[in-house]
Amino acid sequence: LEAKHLGKVYEGKVPYTALHDINFQVEEGEFVAIMGPSGSGKSTLLNILHGVFPASSGTVKIGGQEVHFANASEAINFGIAKVHQEISVIPEMTVAQNLMLGKEPCKRGLIDHKKMNQMAQELLEKLHCSFSAEDKIGDLTAGEKQMIGIAKALQLNAKVISFDEPTASLSDAEVKILFEIIHELKKSGVTILYISHKMDEIFEHCDRATILRDGKYITTLELKNCTEEDLIHAMVGRDVSLFAKRTKPSRCDKNNVVLKVKNLTGEAFQNVSFELNKGEILGFFGLVGAGRTEVMRAIYGADKTAGGTVEYNGKLLNCKKPTDAVQAGIALISENRKEEGVIPNLSNMDNIAISSLKKYQKS
Ligand code: ADP
Ligand code: MG
User: Fold this and answer.
1) Which of 53, 24, 27, 51 is nearest to 36 (CA)?
2) Which residue's CA is minimally distant from atom 7 of ligand 1?
3) What is the CA(114)–ligand 1 centre distance, in A?
4) What is the pLDDT of residue 151?
5) Which residues contact 331 (CB under 8 A, 6 or more apart)?
6) How many whole angstroms from its chain centre is CA 344?
7) Spacing, Cα 45 to ligand 1 middle (Å)
8) 175-204 average pLDDT score
9) How remote is the C-alpha of 276 from its chain's centroid?
């Protein structure tokens, strides 16, 4: 794969140059990381390679042949597949229907459901998935949905597969399976492009790392010859300590408890207790499935609780629905932004105002 002088300008009221004159090459069967800070153009680069939208300038060659994909399915037909950063599935359909969408096996002009389920099930078993081909997608966890995206790319038998931050919502066990599969693909000659922020993953698995910053190509590093510091230096353009230090004092007021949660119990968690002080940032740590999101949703009134109490500024708070929490002055930024955080067919203005419309009412 070879990109030459690749550029991308996003048109709009104010055109924005997201990629400037990118040149890079990937050898057949190589496992290359594409790294860079948020907004540096990684997803834009992959979207061009995969025909999601065209480049504004420059060329891409695959196997020596210059390609101009008009859309993503042309790229797929050419043999390059992508596992997207955002999970894209149709929740009302089954796992098998999602996996085989557009390529359903047919018999006498009708979809052969039995064969479709069987093909999907085989694919899931290869990925050690514990859910079934006939399950509804909507019932799966975020990590399981991500595995569907991976399974979808695998069944295309592509020559180039790119992964855009695939492990962000996977559990440790799922990550392990994913890398086993990637290494198998690599052995069979598949070329892998891999976007991730996780240093340990990159060093353990990738051959080289191509670094972007502010839409510009910075360098490509041979990972066996460099250190984590070298990589970070290339990414941010200066030396940074691996462990950030707090330079400003915390504004937390230890004598002022704002939120007091006691023995909170819900469907996915039991007896959760903590106190949050004024001005404090409290982190919730745990593996995928540990119940972090569920605790926040319960406090916010998005899910039912089965016991325990929440006090807010010394008063008992009992949010039965999110509106109660909003009225009390509690906001939640959801994990699953695309499905729960925004209404995509409304404007930015409407989305921002939707939870505080009262403010804009005329009396
Ligand atoms: P990364 O994947 O490295 O985080 P992206 O490729 O998503 O970066 O984005 C690169 C830059 O292009 C960012 O500044 C982003 O805001 C901008 N950008 C991305 N998509 C669009 C779009 N559809 N329209 C306008 N600007 C965009
Ligand atoms: Mg991205």
Assistant:
1) 24
2) 43
3) 42
4) 87
5) 325, 355
6) 18
7) 10
8) 89
9) 29
The tokens for 146 are: 């991500």
Residue with the smallest CA separation from ligand 1 atom 18 is 18
Can you tell me which atom of ligand 1 is nearest the CA of 38?
A: 4
Q: Is the dihedral of CA 178, 181, 186, 190 positive or negative?
A: negative
> pTM higher than 0.85, yes or no?
no
Q: Which residues, judged by CB distance below 6 Å to any ligand atom, belong to the binding site of ligand 1?
A: 10, 12, 16, 18, 36, 38-44
Residue nearest to atom 14 of ligand 1 (CA): 39
157 Cα–ligand 1 center, Å: 29
Pair of tokens at residue 118:
């069987």
Rounded to whole angstroms, how far apart are CA atoms 141 and 148? Answer: 11
Of 96, 102, 41, 98, the closest CA to residue 71 belongs to 102
Closest-lying ligand 1 atom to the alpha carbon of residue 8 = 12
Q: Which atom of ligand 1 is nearest to the CA of 85?
A: 2
* Residue 360 zone, left/alpha/beta (φ > 0; ψ -120 to 50; rest): alpha
Q: Report whether pLDDT(244) > 70.
A: no
Q: How many CB atoms lie within 10 A of CB 138?
A: 13
Q: Which of 126-140, 159-173, 232-246 has the lowest mean pLDDT?
A: 232-246
b/e per residue, 318-333, with b = 16+ CB within 10 A?
ebeebeebbebebebe
Beta-sheet pairing, 2-10 with 16-25: antiparallel
How many whole angstroms separate alpha carbon 309 and alpha carbon 51?
A: 52
- Give the separation between CA 40 and CA 43, rounded to whole angstroms: 9
> What's the gap in Å between 33 CA and the centre of ligand 2?
13
